[in-house]
Amino acid sequence: MPLVGVVIGSKTDEPLIQPALDMLKQLGIEYEFSILSAHRNPDKVRQYASAATGRGIEVIIAAAGAAAHLPGVVASWTVLPVIGVPLPTSDLKGIDSLYSIVQMPAGVPVACVGIGTPGAKNAALLSAQILGIKHKEIKAAYEEHKRKIAET
């Protein structure tokens, strides 16, 4: 059963979130991957986020570029932790996305990682840290990852 939901707003964002998917796989964390637009189909986003807990999801990674509404919209419909990944898809190279995600109004928290590839990897690692509180095998996988990077 997937523990992490990974959501992007457009098929063109898939290569940008791939580092997160690779890291989740490396850590042995099951995930589900969805393409849902907060602008083109907000009702599907509502349905996805509202039902995530019932599907066993414990953390959601939502990646978006430009105005980056997706992480905030997802967070508005769930009590699960949401990690926003700003994507460098606009002329502003992700700065606009970063500002959009980090400036959520009080009451709708979204954790935010860095822009692009480093942020995508860190979103997966932050998911592992969160899940590691409850899941011993994920904590062990994350600890092993930390040990390996310390050796380099």
Number of strands: 5
**Structural class designation:** alpha/beta
The neighbouring-strand order within the major sheet is 2-1-3-4-5
- Tally of individual domains: 1
| Principal-axis shape | globular
Which spans of ≥5 residues are poorly predicted at pLDDT below 50? none
Count of helical stretches: 6
Cα end-to-end separation: 33 Å
Task: Classify the fold: give the CATH topology.
Answer: Rossmann fold
What's the CATH C level? Alpha Beta
- SSE sequence, one letter per element: EHEHEHEHEHH
Identify the notable features of this structure and list them briefly.
5 strands, globular, 152 residues, 6 helices, 16% strand, Rossmann fold, 5-stranded parallel beta sheet, alpha/beta
What does this structure look like?
The chain contains six helices and five strands; from the N terminus they run E-H-E-H-E-H-E-H-E-H-H. The chain is an alpha/beta fold.
What does the secondary structure layout of this molecule look like, with pairings?
Elements lengths: L3 E5 L5 H13 L4 E5 L6 H10 L7 E7 L4 H7 L5 E6 L7 H8 L8 E2 L3 H17 L3 H16 L1
Parallel strand pairs: 1-2, 1-3, 3-4, 4-5
What is the compact description of this entry?
The chain has 152 residues and is an alpha/beta fold.
